[in-house]
User: What shape does this take?
Amino acid sequence: MQRRAVLSAFAGAPAILRGAAAPPLKLAVIGLVHGHAGGFLRRIAGRDGVTLTGVSEPDAAVRARYAKQFKLDEGIFHAGANRMLDAAMPDAVAIFGDTLSHLAAVEVCAERKLPCMMEKPLAVSIDHGRKIQAAAAKAGIPVFVNYETTWYRSHRALWKLAKEDKRLGAFRKFVVHDGHQGPKAIGVQPEFFEWLNDPARNGAGALFDFGCYGANLCTWLLDNRRPNAVTCVTQRLQPAIYTKVEDEATIVADYGGSQAIFQASWNWPFSRKDIEVYGESGYAIALDPVRLRTRIGKEPEQTSETPAIPSPEDGEVPYLAAIARGQIKPTGLGSLENNLIVTEILDAARRSAREGRTIKL
Assistant: This one.
């Protein structure tokens, strides 16, 4: 299945790049302190058509741990991104540093005209987000932001129901719940916990870590509309653990004819990533990656499993491969256009919580 997925991502490329003659896609990784790096490395391990040629990470202990865990040649590891990229000569780059480091990582990729993907969110501030956009535009490189929820089958089915089939009518309310029991409770790696608890490196706490998911999905469903205003309330329910950042945040985005509520928390009793979308004539709730619950008009409520998403839009690895091969450009949930608006919402929410007032955009 993995081989078919990767090869389908190359469909439409020049003949010399297709089939058995296609050279493997050379990937490099900048940063390992984001805990999602491990999942990415697992997804590319043993995958036909993809080769990991370089990894950079300043922390020697983290480098050694990942090399041992994934049985990787220590020769591909470097402390700095510049030296690694020069040695690895990759076709594309995946960025798994803290959020503050995203700008510097994109800039070194831009210098070498390398397409890149970063783990969500885009940036710690709208200023950083715009500098990332400027660096990408000047170099002419594609950049996209990876969210786990981008690849949810239920979200694609919700889009079709609401946007293509227009079964829900005009949007009225969005309610998005994202988070888990907290980084400490779920046992994230110490280097991951350290920067999540640092407002300079993370942007905030749960507000940026999980508020970005709802902002991303609603911006997508609303065709990249910016809200009129943003109001946010934050709390620190576990101050002994989260000493520098909030662990609870509720964002309310006013879109004029509709309202969005993003509930970001490190205090849920269980991990969750779900979205409720209410329209004039019905609702759709993406319960998890696969299931969609709907009630429309006089029809009874029903829950169904949604169809699979065709490659290369079924995961970040085939999607990044297709981008690097020049087959597609980042659009929708991963696009810079969407994620600059996400960053603007998060930036305004942070100000709102700090100043105790609604921020007009």
The chain has 13 helices and 15 strands. Confidence is low (pLDDT under 50) at residues 1-20. Residues 2-148 form a domain with the Rossmann fold fold (CATH 3.40.50.720). The first strand starts at residue 25 and ends at 30.
